[in-house]
Write a structure and sequence with these properties.
single chain, Rossmann fold, 6-stranded mixed β-sheet, 4-stranded antiparallel β-sheet, about 30% strand, globular, binds magnesium ion
Length: about 230
Amino acid sequence: MTILDARDIVKIFPEPVPFQVLRGISLTIARGEFVSIVGKSGCGKSTLLYVLSTLDTDYRGTLTIADTVVTGKDQDFLAHFRGEHIGFIFQFHFLLQEFTILDNVLLPALKLGKEPPDRVRDRAMGLLERMGIADCAHRPAKQLSGGQQQRAAIARALINQPALVIGDEPTGNLDSENTAAVLDLLSSICRDMGQTVVIVTHDREVAARSDRILTMADGRIIGQERRRP
Ligand SMILES: Nc1ncnc2c1ncn2[C@@H]1O[C@H](COP(=O)(O)OP(=O)(O)OP(=O)(O)O)[C@@H](O)[C@H]1O
Ligand SMILES: [Mg+2]
């Protein structure tokens, strides 16, 4: 079953001179897959993730997620759609600095308002546990290190159990032990929960943990390697 289908995605930045960053990208990602995207700096990886995550709507082509054509939908629709189906892990994690780690993680679930607070809280603590920062749950984000905040942002991205998790170098700030913990968690949500993970990484060892590696160059996908069926 397909979770994401992108057809002929073309993205042009108009400034300072028109520059075609994405030159016709088509890809299909199955539910439960763990996909990584690699490629040289500047080849368009982050730009592609912004399109795939519905945050950037200024592109040509068609994007379908969870059987919904999201291309052409208005911002209200997309904000709600993302809350329900998509979790993001970005390089700059944007935690609310005055709020506790636990409150940061709980926020997307409270916004969605679909589950009893107790259940969400238990899941949040479980995620913080797996990220090794449960003991920091009640401290304000600003008191945590960059790597701890990064792991909290990962827990926040996963709290609503989104069908699609998108990450731009999610392990970029982490040491090898915490990188392994994040990869274990991402692999297990694919395997056990049927969630789908798409990440950009510069780390070959991180890519090697995924089911499929897509290689980008100059705004195109130029190759793929399937590591598991
Ligand atoms: N807002 C923008 N306006 C104009 N050009 C941009 C803009 N954002 C990115 N670009 C250009 O688009 C190209 C692709 O950028 P992108 O951030 O997608 O690269 P990337 O593959 O993620 O690189 P990195 O590995 O360094 O993160 C780069 O040449 C960049 O300069
Ligand atoms: Mg990038």
